[in-house]
Write a structure and sequence with these properties.
single chain; alpha+beta; 5-stranded mixed β-sheet; 7 strands
Length: about 300
C-alpha cells in the first residue's frame, strides 16, 4: 500500500510525465526524419526535381507545438493535483490539532467536576478547582473565537466595526490581563505613550494582542519574559512584542503567518492551532497596516512589529 502511494504521488507522476513527453518528442523527430528519408528515396527514383525542397519544417513545428500544448495541460493538471493533495494533508492536520486543543480543556473540566461530585473537597481546594475550570473555560472560549475569526477573515463575511479607539488604554488592559495568566516567574513589561488612538475594531485588536502574547508565551521557557512597546512614528502607530524564547530560522520568518502553519521541531509538543499569527496579519492588513517578524536565530527570541495608521 505504501509503495502504491509513493508511485502515485504528484512528484512521481510529474517525473513519469516528463519521461513520456521526452519519449514522444524523440519518437516524433525519429518518425519525421524516417518519413523524410522515405520521401527522398522515392523522389530520387521518380521525381528528382523535388529533392531541392529539403525538410518540411512546418509539419515538424506543428507536431512540436502540439506536444508542448499537451505538456502545458499536464503541468496545469499537476499543479491543481499537487495543490489538492496539500490541502487534503493540511485538512487532516487541522482536524487533529483542533480536536486535541478542544479536548484537553474539556477533559480537565470533566475531571475536576467528577472529583467534586464524588467527594466534597476542602474550601481552599475547591477554590483551586473552580479557578482551574474557569481558566479552561476561557481557553475554550479563546480557541472557538480564533476559529470563528479565522473563518470570518477567510470568507470576508462581516466587515469590521471600526471606531476611534484609545489603543494605549486597550493595550494596557490586555497586558494586565496577560500578567495574571503568566506562570510563576514570568514577566511582561510595557512601555507605551499615552492617548494614542486609531480607527480599529476593539474586539479584533484585542484578539491580535492576545494572539501575540499567546505566541510569545508558548515559544518561551517556563518563565517567559515579554517586552511590549507602543509609540507613534509619523502617521503610524508602532507596536512591538519581543520575547526571549525559541526564536525562528530564516526560512520560517514568512511561513509563520500562513494559515494553520506551526513552528515545530522533532520532540516539541507546543499546543495551538496555527491560526493566531494568520489572524494577526489578516486583521492588521485590513486596517491598511503591516506586520513583520525578526529573529537572530534559534534560541535568540523573536520580535513582532505591527504598524497601523494613527488617528
Amino acid at each position: 500500500m505504501r509503495l502504491l502511494r509513493r508511485l502515485f504521488n504528484p512528484v512521481m507522476a510529474l517525473i513519469a510525465v516528463q519521461v513520456v513527453w521526452i519519449t514522444l518528442v524523440v519518437c516524433w523527430i525519429y518518425w519525421f526524419i524516417g518519413k523524410h528519408r522515405e520521401f527522398r528515396n522515392l523522389a530520387e527514383k521518380y521525381r528528382p526535381e523535388l529533392l531541392g525542397q529539403g525538410y518540411n519544417w512546418p509539419v515538424m513545428v506543428e507536431g512540436l507545438v502540439m506536444l508542448v500544448a499537451i505538456l502545458v495541460g499536464v503541468y496545469v493538471i499537476f499543479h491543481y493535483w499537487n495543490r489538492q493533495s496539500n490541502l487534503y494533508a493540511q485538512q487532516r492536520n487541522i482536524i487533529s490539532q483542533v480536536t486535541h486543543e478542544l479536548k484537553s480543556p474539556l477533559a480537565s473540566i470533566q475531571l475536576h467536576l467528577e472529583t467534586i461530585r464524588l467527594r466534597r473537597p476542602p474550601e481552599e481546594r475547591l477554590d483551586n478547582f473552580v479557578g482551574t475550570m474557569l481558566a479552561d473555560t476561557e481557553r475554550l472560549h479563546y480557541l472557538i473565537n480564533n476559529l470563528l475569526m479565522a473563518a470570518r477573515l477567510d470568507q470576508r463575511r462581516k466587515p469590521p466595526e471600526r471606531r476611534l479607539t484609545d489603543v494605549s488604554a486597550l493595550l494596557e488592559e490586555q497586558v494586565e490581563r496577560e500578567r495574571s495568566r503568566l506562570p510563576q516567574g514570568g514577566n511582561i513589561s510595557l512601555e507605551s505613550e499615552a492617548g494614542l488612538k486609531a480607527s480599529i475594531d476593539p474586539e479584533e485588536m484585542g484578539m491580535v494582542l492576545r494572539n501575540l502574547f499567546e505566541n510569545a508565551e508558548l515559544y518561551s521557557p517556563e518563565s517567559p519574559d515579554i517586552s511590549v512597546t507602543l509609540a507613534r512614528s509619523g502617521t503610524q502607530l508602532v507596536l512591538s512584542v519581543k520575547d526571549c524564547g525559541r526564536g525562528l530560522e530564516k526560512k520560517e520568518l514568512k511561513k509563520v503567518f500562513e494559515m494553520f502553519y506551526r513552528v515545530r521541531q522533532a520532540g516539541e509538543h507546543v499546543r495551538g492551532t496555527g491560526l493566531g499569527l494568520y489572524i494577526v496579519q489578516s486583521v492588521v492588513k485590513g486596517y491598511g497596516g503591516t506586520v513583520a517578524v525578526t529573529s537572530a536565530g534559534l534560541g535568540k527570541g523573536s520580535t513582532f512589529t505591527i504598524k497601523i495608521p494613527a488617528a
